[in-house]
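Forgive a beginner's question, but might I ask you for the amino acids of a protein and the C-alpha cells describing how it folds?
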Amino acid sequence: MARDYDLVVIGNNRAAPWAAIAAARQSARVVLVATEPESIPISLLLKTWAEQPCFSVLDGQVPSSPIPLSHWATAFAENWAALRSATQLASLGIEQLDGLPQFKADLQSVQVGDRNLRTRRYLLALDAARPTPPLPGMLTPPQLLEQLGQSEVALLNPVVILGEGPTALSLSHCLAGLHHQVTLISSHAHLLPKEDAEAALWVQAHLEAKGVTLSTNTAIQAIHPLPSQGQELITSKGKIKAKTLVWAAEPSLTSYSWLPAQLRYTSQKLWVNAQLQTSQACIYACGSVLGGYTLPDLAEHEAKIAP
C-alpha cells in the first residue's frame, strides 16, 4: 500500500513541531497532529520575568516590575506559540491537524477527523498529565502563576512548595529570586531522587544559597487550615506554617485511550528501547510519557534520537 507520509508526528509538547520541522528539512513527507494545545513552561516564564533588572535590590528596597506579570505572560505565550506556529509549519510544507488520532488495527494508517493518514512511521511526542493536588487549598503551578499575575492579590509568605523534581526546584529558585520566603519540602532523602546524589546535593546547596529553606526526608502527616489564612503542615519533623501552599509534583504516566493497545508499558512509563522505539517497530516516542521530566529541551533532545 502506498504511503502518503514518511512520518506522522503526534504530540502535545514542544518536541512535536521541532521533530516535524527536522524531518521536513531532510525531505521527509510529514504531518503534525496536535492532540491539545501545548502548555506554557511556567518555570521558564517566571524565570525570564524575574530576570528583569528592576528586580535587583537597591538600598534595601525591592522595586516593582515595570511590566505586570499578566502582560508578560501574554507576550510570552504569543512568542512561544509563534516559534512553531501552524503558519511557520505550512511554509515548510508541513500540514498541522488538530484532534485526537484513531490508529487502525494494522498501524499502517491513523484517522484524524475525516482524514486517513497512511504513513511509514509515527513519533509520539507526548507529555504526561500533571497530578491533581490531593487536598483543597493547594495551588498547582498554573494556579500559582495566575495568582502572581493578579496585581491586586499579593503572594503571601511564607510560601511552602511540595515536591522534589525540576518543577519544584525551578519554582523555588524563581520565587526566592523574587524575594519570597520559600520552604521546599520533599519526602525523599535528597532532591531529584532519580538523579546522582552528588549532583542533587550540589543543586540543594545552590538553592540554599539563594535563600530557599530545604526540608528533605520529611513526611507530611496532616494539613490543617489556619483560622486567619493558610495552612499548618504536620510533618515528621514538626509543624510548618504556610500562607501559600504549592503542589509541584512531577507529571505522572497517562495511558492515553487513543494509543494503540499493542504498546507495552512498565509500571512508570511507556516502554521504549535505546533508540526510543516502542514495542511496535513503526512507533517511536519521546517526552515525559517515557517516565522522565516535562522539560522542553529534554523532549527535543529525545526527538533527535528517534528516527
